[in-house]
Request: fold
Amino acid sequence: MRTIALLMVTTILLAPLAGCTGTDNEDDEYYYIPPVPDKISYFVHASSQTVDITIENEYGGTNQYNDVPMWIDGEANPWWYNFSTYLDGWTFLYVSAQIGQDCDCIVRAIIYVNGVQADFSQSEGAYVIATASDMR
Reply:
């Protein structure tokens, strides 16, 4: 009796799914939706004239940029590095900025993932480093 009741309940619950292929086009038996890459942005700005920047790039390697100008003709010149990648849970994101001057300065490093701030670091003083990192 219990087996018959279980069979009836199972049939009632699964009946609406009978004949569903999961596609909008009945000619396609299966279809594939490719993943969309994530957009990564590294941002650096400082009150010093220049900074040295180190990043983890889209290929898992390291890039270094020396004496990157933060101000041009008195105008702020923030530094950006943008790329797209597939985040798989093992993707390391990293940006570091170092002030190489004896000044009372502020440096900021920020990581954005799909336009949302993922990590932020700020340091103040002479010869300081701001490092932002994230694992996604």
Observations:
- The beta strands are 38-46, 50-56, 62-69, 71-72, 75-76, 79-85, 92-98, 105-113, 116-125, 129-135.
- The first helix runs from residue 2 to 14.
- The longest strand covers residues 116-125.
